[in-house]
Amino acid sequence: xxxxxxxxxHPVRRKLLExxxxxxxxxxxxxxxxxxxxxxxxxxxxxxxxxxxVRDRAEGRERHxxxxxxxxxxxxxxxxxxxxxxxxRLRALAEVxxxxxxSDE
Length: 105
Fold this sequence. Notes:
Residues 1-87 form the HTH arsR-type domain. The protein has 105 residues and is α+β, with helices and mostly antiparallel strands.
């Protein structure tokens, strides 16, 4: 799970996971979604693969990546006990935002 936290720490890798939520995609298609070089995106995919967050398979000359949700479930299980600390803060933040929105009218 430590690898999963490290992999999730980078915004490009989080975006790659979000893209893969819709289904498998080729490395080239994923790379096209970023203003990064293909080798840079490939390195991020390698980190995700090493953390077991994605799987890849070769099909001809292309690599196809898909999401592996098992490590994410472990992260969720670890984070769940901390919900009691951040849920009230999010509720309070939402109330403040609603109050500010109401004062603009």
